[in-house]
């Protein structure tokens, strides 16, 4: 029997007509080819399919190629494509092989380089500087597919291969390292990344405006050395002869010699991070070398932001990664909606203000509803929108009317320590948006998992309670994540966070609305140890707060000094750049371990550390058998003291992320005194899961107990469930316990 006749016989047995399988295979191949063509070219064959001899731009990224609006690389590339430029993608090239960056040949106009959606050092290392073993932004979650300091390595590799091709660097790593900056991993002050990378330009912040202007200028025939006039860029020069209207920063040498000079420099940079009020800044590196930062680019209008999200994203990882199981990071954002950018919250540990600015930019409700409708046609959509938010979910407008035309105020804050009298707190548009999304056919549930500013809620006298009611009834999957971070007034002041009493009032409001809705849902407070300003005394205060809530937080976020944040400057210099006053900084690894152990005082392995910490703080009154004590004396049987009559009961120490519950009542106790418990607020939200930091709480996407859930802290940079963009603009995100970039939300260039 011939092979052909055998195939016919097999087809007949299967009920197929001869040739049917062949036609099916051909159709599948054609479909696969058509699907691949929806992505940008990643090799020469893809270019030939498009009839290209060369690319205008080649984008080199430290992330795997995911064509989704949550990935900055995708936004920048699609935007250039919409402006009629041919763009190719080289994702995660082998930095040990120079040929890897030549895979698409020499681009006509230039290379665009980014580490990806995260700073590569945060991606690689925990706060304890231990190497991470996985990477959610790589195929199959495989670690080690990008180098440390990826932007510097990629850019220098390109420069060796293509001597005179313009190189423009951007994304979160380049943006936050655009001028001299403290590098936690080497414990040193590094030069501007522009100098170390041998690139020509940095496109910093949100890059939509600057990247198109750069492309058009290069396309017109201008040399990259002539591009000194574009807002949102940084360039270098050997002379200041043609640089006007600038403010001179301390020289790099002076900052290395005196950390106080660096604190002063960062204060000036921070004050000039607004697109209206920001000045041009010059950083000297000797008599004949200067790095010049042009003023920030203007924020996108609602119409412009809507247009960005209408770009033809495939909303998926490139099919080349299918064999590896895809790219894990897409799972966190595929069915989430980014509604805003920017943040006027100004948390000191977050670099978002330095990167996206204080002026909140929003998409229209129509744009968001249209994207939700598009989601419902995806075969993988189960009816659950995982998040509607951004850096701060409940910011849907600038802080005040003045900001739109006149920019954010210099030397003043919108929310903390006291809210500005001109601040407009209004949740009406967000409430309307959530209601419209719930009405989209095919949508079963809409969750809010980006962090919300509870102090902003409490300022909204007209709609604040209504918003909390909407959350409780429709948009919370058992837990609502908020970020009090600490309880001590001194630490909160360093953090730029509101007084703890405001958090208490919010918890009461949330519980009232849960009771009204007949639901048992919990506040999940994000807590941070070892932030600048936290002595052992403040760490004990936080431990007492945890005690009175009645839960054991197995995951705790240690402060991580990442580039671009005020708190990182505090960590390096011991000064608050806002006031130039000294700040206590816990740097010693053992002291940091003591502060962390206090928050996790119920963990048996922490008992000795807790006792030591309490003795250091002069709080031996918390060592004993009383219900208010944190640990029993040495040699005593058992672990933590009994909780006492009427206290919440626990069945041992739960596994997994146990960061839930209510809150304590009143101020934490001082020596010899105990803080009172509020009883009803000491609720437990039980979770299961292993000890791995990637395991999730109930409602999360992995280890989920609710469909459509989203991880809160699964991967460095993932904070609050969102993967940030990093396009020539990006966003620091809240990091999972163990380290990562803190920030709020989602966003930009790769």
Tally of separate helices: 25
At CATH level 2, the architecture of the domain at 38-293 is: 3-Layer(aba) Sandwich
CATH class of the domain at 38-293: Alpha Beta
Separation of the first and last Cα atoms: 58 Å
Q: Radius of gyration from the CA trace?
A: 27 Å
What is shown here, in short?
With 750 residues, this protein is an alpha/beta fold.
Describe the structure.
The strands form eight sheets. The chain has a nine-stranded mixed beta sheet, with helices on both faces. A three-stranded parallel beta sheet has the order 20-21-22. 32% of the residues lie in helices and 11% in strands. By secondary structure, the chain is α/β, with parallel strands linked by helices. Among the domains are: 38-293, 3-Layer(aba) Sandwich (Rossmann fold), CATH 3.40.50.280; 478-697, Transcription Regulator spoIIAA. The longest helix is centred in the C-terminal third of the chain and has 18 residues, at 500-517. Helix 4 (72-82) packs across helix 9.
Strand and helix layout:
Blueprint: H1 3-13, H2 20-36, H3 44-50, E1 57-61, E2 66-67, H4 72-82, E3 87-91, E4 110-114, H5 120-124, H6 150-161, E5 167-170, H7 171-176, E6 181-183, E7 188-190, H8 193-197, E8 201-203, H9 208-219, E9 233-237, E10 246-248, H10 252-257, H11 259-271, E11 280-284, E12 290-293, H12 302-309, E13 316-317, H13 329-333, E14 336-338, E15 340-341, H14 352-356, E16 361-362, H15 365-375, E17 384-385, E18 387-389, H16 401-406, H17 428-438, E19 445-446, H18 454-459, H19 464-475, E20 479-485, H20 489-495, H21 500-517, E21 522-529, H22 536-549, E22 557-558, H23 566-573, E23 575-576, E24 581-582, H24 589-599, H25 607-616
């Amino acid at each position: 029997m011939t092979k052909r006749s055998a195939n016919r016989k097999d087809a007949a047995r299967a009920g197929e007509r001869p040739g049917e399988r062949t036609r099916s295979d051909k159709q599948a191949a054609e479909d696969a080819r058509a699907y691949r063509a929806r992505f940008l070219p990643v090799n020469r064959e893809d270019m030939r399919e498009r009839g290209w001899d060369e690319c205008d731009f080649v984008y080199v990224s430290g992330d795997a190629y995911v064509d989704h609006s949550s990935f900055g690389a995708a936004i920048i590339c699609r935007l250039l494509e919409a402006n009629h430029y041919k763009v190719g993608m080289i994702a995660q090239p082998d930095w040990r092989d120079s040929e890897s960056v030549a895979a698409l040949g020499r681009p006509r106009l230039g290379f665009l380089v980014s580490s990806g959606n995260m700073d590569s050092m945060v991606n690689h290392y925990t706060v304890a500087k231990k190497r991470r073993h996985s990477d959610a932004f790589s195929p199959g979650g495989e670690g080690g597919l990008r180098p440390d300091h990826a932007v510097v390595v990629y850019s220098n590799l390109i420069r060796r291969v293509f001597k005179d091709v313009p190189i423009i660097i951007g994304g979160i790593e380049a943006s936050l390292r655009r001028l001299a900056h403290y590098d936690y991993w080497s414990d040193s002050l590094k030069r501007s990344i522009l100098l170390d990378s041998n690139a020509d330009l940095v496109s910093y912040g949100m890059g939509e405006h600057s990247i198109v202007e750069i492309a058009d200028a290069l396309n017109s025939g201008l040399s990259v050395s002539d591009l000194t006039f574009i807002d949102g860029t940084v360039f270098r020069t050997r002379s200041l002869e043609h640089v006007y209207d600038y403010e001179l920063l301390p020289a790099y040498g002076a900052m290395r010699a005196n950390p106080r000079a660096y604190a002063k420099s960062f204060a000036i940079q921070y004050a000039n991070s607004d697109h209206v009020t920001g000045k041009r800044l010059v950083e000297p590196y000797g008599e004949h070398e200067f790095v010049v930062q042009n003023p920030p680019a203007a924020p996108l209008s609602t119409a412009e932001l809507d247009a960005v999200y209408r770009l033809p994203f495939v909303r998926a990882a490139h099919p080349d990664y299918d064999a590896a199981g895809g790219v894990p990071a897409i799972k966190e954002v595929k069915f989430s909606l980014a509604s805003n950018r920017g943040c006027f919250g100004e948390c000191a540990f977050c670099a978002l203000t330095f990167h996206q600015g204080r002026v909140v930019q929003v998409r229209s409700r129509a744009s968001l509803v249209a994207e939700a409708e598009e989601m419902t046609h995806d075969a993988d959509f189960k009816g659950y929108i995982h998040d509607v938010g951004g850096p701060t979910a409940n910011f849907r407008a600038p802080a005040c009317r003045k900001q739109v035309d006149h920019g954010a105020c210099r030397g003043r804050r919108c929310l903390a320590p006291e809210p500005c009298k001109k601040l407009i707190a209004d949740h009406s548009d967000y409430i309307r948006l959530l209601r419209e999304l719930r009405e989209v056919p095919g949508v079963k549930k809409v969750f809010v998992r980006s962090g919300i500013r509870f102090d902003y809620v409490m300022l909204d006298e007209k709609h604040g309670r209504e918003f909390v009611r909407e959350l409780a009834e429709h948009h919370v999957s058992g837990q609502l994540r908020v970020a009090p971070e600490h309880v001590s007034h001194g630490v909160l002041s360093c953090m730029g966070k509101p007084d703890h009493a405001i958090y208490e009032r919010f918890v009461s409001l949330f519980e009232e609305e849960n009771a009204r809705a007949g639901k048992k849902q919990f506040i999940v407070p994000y807590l941070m140890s070892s932030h600048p300003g936290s002595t052992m005394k403040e760490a004990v205060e936080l431990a007492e707060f945890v005690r009175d809530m009645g839960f054991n937080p197995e995951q705790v976020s240690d402060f991580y000094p990442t580039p671009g944040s005020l708190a990182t400057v505090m960590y390096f210099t011991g000064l608050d750049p806002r006031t130039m006053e000294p700040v206590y900084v816990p740097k010693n690894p053992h002291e940091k371990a003591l502060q962390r152990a206090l928050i996790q005082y119920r963990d048996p392995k922490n008992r000795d550390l807790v006792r030591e910490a309490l003795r250091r703080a002069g709080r031996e009154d918390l060592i004993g058998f009383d219900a208010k004590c944190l640990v029993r004396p040495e040699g005593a049987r058992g672990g933590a003291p009994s909780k006492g009559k009427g206290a919440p009961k626990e069945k041992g120490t739960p596994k997994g992320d146990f960061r839930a519950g209510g809150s304590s009542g009143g101020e934490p106790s001082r020596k010899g005194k105990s803080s009172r418990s509020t009883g009803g607020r000491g609720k437990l939200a039980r979770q299961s899961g292993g000890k791995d930091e990637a395991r999730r709480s109930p409602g999360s996407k992995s280890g989920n107990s609710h469909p459509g859930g989203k991880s809160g802290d699964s991967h460095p940079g993932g904070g609050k469930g969102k993967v940030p963009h990093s396009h020539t603009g990006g966003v620091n995100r809240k990091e999972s316990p163990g380290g990562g970039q803190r920030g709020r939300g989602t966003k930009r260039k790769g």
